[in-house]
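FAQ: What does a multi-protein file look like?

Like this. Sequence, then C-alpha cells, then the next protein.
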Amino acid sequence: MSDGNKVYNLLITKGEYDPTEQYEFYKGRINEEEDFLYKEYNTLEHELTDELFEKIDVIVLLFGLYKYDKELFDELIAKSKELDIPLLSIRFYGMEAILKELEEKADAVVGWNPHCIINAIETLTDRENWVKPCDIAEDE
C-alpha cells in the first residue's frame, strides 16, 4: 500500500477546543499504519506562513472541529485552492456525512478507516482523481 520511502508533509487541523478528542483519535488511527511515514504540521502549534504551505503535500481537515473554528477551515480551504494543495476532509467519528459545502470543496472525503485515510493521502499526492470514499458503499 504505502511507498515506504515517501514522507508525506501533512497540515492537520488541531483546535484549542476539541471536546471529542478528534485530533488525538486521528493521530491514533494514522499511526496504526507502521509503513506510512509523515511529518505533521498542525494548525495549533505551527504558524500558517507561506513557507509552511510550500512544504505541505495535503491539508487534512478534521470535520469534527469545524463548528469550533470555521474561520480556520475557511482559511485552509482558500489556501488549498490558491496554492493547489489537495484538501482531505475526514468525517466526524461515527458520522457518514459532512456539510455539503465542505464536501464540495474537499478533494476527498473519508471516514476513520486508517487504510482509507492513507489511500486518500497517497492518491491526492500523486495527483490522481479521487473517485469516492473507500469506506462507504455505493448507492444502488
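And here is the next protein:
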Amino acid sequence: MKLPYFPQDAPFSDDQRAWLSGFLAAMGTRLAAPSGAGAAAAAAPAMQILYGSQTGNAESVAEDAAAAAKAQGFTPAVCALDDVDMERLAAAQRVLVVTSTYGEGEMPDNAELFWQALSADSARRMESLDFAVLALGDTGYDGFCQAGKMVDTRLEQLGAHRVAPRVDCDVDYEDAATGWISDILPLFAAVEGIRKEPTVLERDQLTETAERGAKTARKRSPWNRKNPYRSQVALNRRLSGDTSSKEIRHYEFALADSGLEYEAGDALGVMPINDSALVNALIERLGFDPDAVVTGKERPLSDLLTHSYEISTPSHELIDEIEKRAAHDELSHVLHRGEKSDLDAWLWGKDILDLLELVPSLAFEVDEFVGLLRPLQHRAYSISSSPLANPGHVHLTVASVRYTSTGRDRGGVCSTYLADRLAAGDHGGIFVSKNKSFRVPANDDVPMIMVGPGTGVAPFRAFLQERKARGATGRNWLFFGDQHRSSDYIYEEELEALSSDGILTRLDLAFSRDQEEKIYVQSRMLENGKELFSWLEDGGHFYVCGDATRMAKDVDRALHEVIETHGGMSVEDAAEYVTALKREKRYLRDVY
C-alpha cells in the first residue's frame, strides 16, 4: 500500500495532519496482524537509514532514528551514503535519509560518490521505494540544506515515493530532528501494519525513545553544544613568530573527570563568549537599556547579547530588514541584484554595528532586534593531539582572526575569545564532535600521506602522535607550508624530532614567500609526483586538511595530475583512480 503524494517543499497542513491521524487509526483496525511462520519476519520489516555527515551531526541523528525505528518494530540498518550499494537501494522498500550540507550547498564528503551515482543518467528507477529526508543546514549560508533538497528531489525523479515532506533544520536542529523521527516512523509503520494508532502513552514513549537516541545501544557523552563541559585551560601559547603576519596559538584543555573521550581526527567544539566591547557598542548605538527584559527570556539584554546571540555576522533576516528601513542605495542595489558574490564582497569586513551605522536614525525595538539575530554557535576546530600521547588533555591549533576596519579593531568571535579571554587556569565550554570519516588507517602497516599547510597541520600532529604511540610501522609523509619559514613554521621542533626518530618518513616544506616564485604544498606534490604515486600504489592513504575554497581544490587538481603523469593514465582514468581512492576510504578530507 502506498501513501498519498506529498509535495517536497510543503509543510504538513492542518488537513494533512487530520488525514494522517485518521489514516493511522484506520490502518490500526483494517490491517490484520500476521500469523504463522511469517509473523516474526513480517513484524520487523527492514529499514535503511542513510546519512551524509561532515561533522557527525547527521550520523548521530541517523543513529537516534535507528533506535526509535527498532522500538517501532523495524529492523534498521545505518549506513553512510557513500557506502550504499545502489543496486540494493533501487530494490529497497523503506529508506530514511539524513544529510547535512557542506560549504555553499555541497554534498558532505561521505555523500559525494552517492550523489554522483544517484544523479547519473544511468541511475536505476526506484518505484518500490518509500522514503523521507531530513536535511541539516545553516541559514547563514545561501545553500541552506541544499544537499538534502537535491537528494529529496532526485529520489522523486527516479520514481521513489515520498512518505512525508522533507524537513529542513537550521543549526538548532535537535528538536526538529526529534520531531521528524517521532512523526515519520508511525507513517511507515502504518503502511506495514506493524502498529495500530499509537495511544498517547505509546506516542510519548516513541518521542522519549527518539530523544534518548541510541543511549541504550551505545555510550553518548552528556557534553554537547547545549551542555558544554567547563574545562580548565592548561596552556595558551603563541606558536607563530613575532614577525609573522598571522597569530597561530596552541591550546590545551584539561578533561579531568569529565568522561570526555576523543580520537585523532575528531573536532573540538568551543562555545565562545562575545566581546563585551561590541556588546556595549551595540546597546549604546540602539539606545537600549542593558538590563532590559526580552519577551520570553529570563535574562537581561546584555547577558543575552554576550552569551546567546551572534552579534558580529548579520543574519539574512537582519540584512533584509535593515535594507527595507535604511533607504541605502548601495545596499539595495547589491541585495536586489541577487548575486551572492557581490553581496559577500560588499559585506566583507562589516559587522552588525557597521550596518546599523549606515543610517544614524535607524532604530529597532528590543524584542524586534533580538528576534532578527541568530543563536550564538560553537566553533569546531580539528583536534591536534592523540589521547594515547596526551591522556587527560585535548589540544587545539587555532589562527586568531584580527583586522581593523573603519577605525575599529575587529576579530573572530571564537578565535579572539580563546586568545584574549581564556588564559591558563580559566574555564571554557567544550565538547567533542566525532568525525569517524577522518581517521588514522586501521592498518598500521600502510603508508599515510598528509597535506596540511598552516593550521591544517593540526589533525596530522594528532595522527603522527597516534601512530607513534601505536608503534605503527607504516611510512608517514607530511606536506606542510605557510608564508615564511622563520616565523610560520609551527611545531618545528616536534616535526623535526619526528623526522629524526623515523616516525615522519618524509617532510616536504613549502614556504610561499621565502623566494620570488611562490611555492605551495601542491607544488611539492608535483615535484615529488613519482614517489607520491608509488606510495598510493602501495596502498597509501591520502589526507587533506585546511582551506576548502582554494587549497583543497588545488591539491585535488595536483593529485589528479600526479596520477595522470606517473600512472600513465588519461584524464578519465585518473578521475576513476581518485574515485576508487575515495570509495576505499583512502582519500579523506577535513576541510573548512
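Q: Is there any per-entry metadata?
A: Some entries carry free-text notes. For the entry above: Residues 142 and 340 are 8 Å apart (CA to CA).
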